[in-house]
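Design job #97: recover the sequence.
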């Protein structure tokens, strides 16, 4: 059996080989793109009620993203995230790796590992945060290893369509492995969920950049199933989630807006049902082509009585609690490959009270 260190080393060797061969790839196939992303930063929070402060330099991950148009109808993409965890050290995670066949606007088929089609944020912003409008990925959409609660990436088969009719109708239907162990961390055992998950999304884009959508996910977990936290489920349950999203992120418009709401329910056989609620609100205004002041808020209501979740996340060593955060930020776009961000933050966490702080980030791609 291969050890974690052996697999991680082989992944690193593969990445070095791809990097060295990238000029050859670019020559042989002009439609192949190879990109790296990073976003180091600094944050400082102070909590008077806890008599504590926490300055913290973030090295950030190194994200590797490759895409290629291998024929008129077939494209492939892969995204790998190399980061450091407080409890486990260096990790390499496969975020996406898929092949897509585009038959026409009304039908395309994707096979592999991909972002779950829930809302706008999860599908459109990868882990290279140079594209994301604010500093931090919303908590409700964080991966499990970063304190997350729900599945934001899945491995399976998806059919979809875009820009159908005058209303710009679009849809997605994803049949995937479902909730299982570790969710794709390379170098660790990966156990598939015992039953597949189903995810559906319906939406409209009546004008370019203005999108409305609703999404739903269902995944049955019988007794003996493992959660994404490597623990058995308390008892048989069905995990269901619904989300609604409205966004306006047109490149040529001054106003930027994303509003999303998530409801994730664990429907147990005998235990009381438990519900997690999360909301995201982003508002930005393009004062110039380079300068964007913005407001970002996220609300998270956590079901403290749900035995599905561990008291402490095994990857981050941080407790699971409800939290609301409000940020006033400024984004400066030096160019398409370099973006500077700064935020003043107010964080209100259950059990810990209110903290005030500021965050900075240098997001770049190369």
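Job complete. Output follows.
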């Amino acid at each position: 059996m291969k050890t974690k260190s052996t697999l991680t080393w082989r992944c690193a060797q593969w990445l070095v080989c791809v990097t060295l061969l990238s000029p050859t790839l670019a020559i042989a196939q002009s439609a192949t793109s190879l990109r790296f992303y990073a976003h180091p930063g600094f944050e400082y929070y102070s909590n008077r009620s806890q008599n504590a402060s926490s300055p913290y330099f973030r090295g950030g991950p190194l994200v590797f993203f490759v895409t290629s148009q291998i024929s008129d109808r077939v494209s492939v993409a892969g995204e790998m995230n190399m980061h450091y965890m407080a409890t486990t050290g260096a990790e390499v995670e496969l975020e996406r790796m898929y092949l897509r066949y585009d038959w026409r606007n009304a039908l395309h088929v994707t096979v592999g590992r991909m972002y779950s089609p829930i809302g706008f944020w999860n599908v459109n912003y990868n882990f290279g945060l140079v594209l994301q409008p604010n500093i931090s990925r919303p908590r409700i959409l964080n991966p499990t290893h970063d304190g997350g609660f729900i599945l934001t990436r899945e491995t399976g088969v998806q059919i979809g369509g875009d820009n159908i009719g005058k209303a710009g109708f679009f849809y997605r239907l994803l049949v995937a492995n479902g909730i299982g162990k570790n969710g794709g961390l390379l170098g660790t055992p990966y156990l598939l969920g015992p039953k597949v998950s189903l995810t559906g999304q319906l939406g409209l884009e009546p004008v370019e950049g203005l999108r409305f959508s609703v999404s739903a996910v269902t995944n049955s977990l019988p007794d003996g199933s493992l959660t994404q936290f490597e623990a058995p489920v308390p008892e048989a349950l069905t995990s269901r989630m619904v989300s609604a999203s409205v966004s306006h992120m047109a490149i040529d418009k001054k106003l930027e807006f994303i509003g999303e709401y998530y409801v994730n329910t664990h429907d147990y056989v005998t235990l009381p049902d438990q519900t997690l609620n999360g909301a995201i609100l982003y508002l930005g205004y393009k004062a110039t082509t380079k300068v964007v002041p913005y407001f970002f808020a996220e609300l998270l209501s956590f079901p403290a009585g749900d035995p599905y979740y561990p008291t402490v996340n095994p990857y981050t060593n941080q407790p699971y609690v409800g939290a609301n955060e409000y940020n006033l930020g400024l984004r400066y776009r030096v160019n398409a490959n370099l973006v500077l961000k700064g935020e003043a933050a107010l964080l209100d966490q259950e059990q810990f009270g209110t903290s005030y702080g500021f965050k900075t980030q240098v997001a770049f791609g190369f």
